[in-house]
């Protein structure tokens, strides 16, 4: 097998289900797992208390989400990495898959029913544009 399995996360319960499925696939296929969180805007917020100042950005928040999920997925014999990517979630996942020469992208099926089906979903967009296989996990509608 070449390339990692990439899973997109956003901190939601449905993304967590997709990440767990991606972990199971990676272990079964003896592939590395890469956890990725997208952020659309590069906003920065400065917060302070007394003489202390913190600077938080969307990029840092996305990296934190990806890192926390990656840490929760660690398992013996499994290599897990993480990153954040700028752009709409589907576009960022596809770009990351191209950059890493991914074997597969794993996404959940959130927003694939009802109005979301008409307006589009991350899973649908990834499936139509991915440079590799796509596995859509049934995370909602169970």
The share of residues in extended strands comes to: 25-35%
Number of domains: 1
Q: What general outline do the C-alpha atoms trace?
A: globular
What's the total number of strands?
7
If you consult CATH, what is the topology?
Answer: Rossmann fold
Major sheet description: 5 strands, parallel
Within CATH, the superfamily carries the name HUPs
| Number of distinct helices | 5
End-to-end Cα distance, whole Å, is: 31 Å
Low-confidence stretches: 112-119
Give the structural class: alpha/beta
Spatial order of the strands in the main sheet?
A: 5-2-1-6-7
Q: pLDDT average, as an integer?
A: 85
Rg calculated over all Cα atoms: 16 Å
Q: Can you tell me the CATH architecture?
A: 3-Layer(aba) Sandwich
CATH class label:
Alpha Beta
Layout of SSEs?
Blueprint: E1 5-8, H1 13-29, E2 33-39, E3 44-49, E4 52-57, H2 58-73, E5 80-86, H3 89-100, E6 104-108, H4 114-119, H5 122-129, E7 133-137
Parallel strand pairs: 1-2, 1-6, 2-5, 6-7
Antiparallel strand pairs: 3-4
Helix pairs in contact: 3-5
Sum this structure up briefly.
Helix content is 42%, strand content 28%. By secondary structure, it is of the alpha/beta class.
What does this structure look like?
With 142 residues, the protein is of the alpha/beta class. The protein has a single domain (5-137), classed as Rossmann fold (3-Layer(aba) Sandwich), CATH 3.40.50.620. It has helices at residues 13-29, 58-73, 89-100, 114-119, 122-129; strands spanning 5-8, 33-39, 44-49, 52-57, 80-86, 104-108, 133-137. The strands form 2 sheets. It has a 5-stranded parallel sheet with strand order 5-2-1-6-7, with helices on both faces. Helix 3 (89-100) runs parallel beside helix 5. It is globular. The two termini are 31 Å apart.
């Amino acid at each position: 097998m070449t390339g990692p399995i990439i899973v997109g996360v956003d901190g939601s319960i449905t993304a967590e289900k997709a990440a767990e499925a991606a972990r199971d696939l990676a272990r079964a296929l003896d592939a590395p797992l890469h956890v990725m969180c997208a952020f659309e805007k590069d906003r920065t917020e400065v917060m302070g208390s007394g003489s202390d100042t913190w600077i938080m950005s969307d990029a840092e928040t996305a990296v934190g989400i990806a890192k926390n999920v990656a840490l929760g997925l660690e398992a013996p014999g499994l290599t897990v990495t993480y990153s954040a990517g700028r752009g709409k979630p589907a576009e960022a996942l596809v770009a990351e898959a191209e950059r890493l020469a991914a074997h597969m992208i794993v996404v959940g099926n959130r927003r694939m029913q009802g109005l979301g089906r008409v307006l589009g979903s991350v899973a649908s967009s990834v499936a139509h544009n991915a440079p590799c296989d796509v596995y859509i996990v049934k995370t909602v509608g169970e």
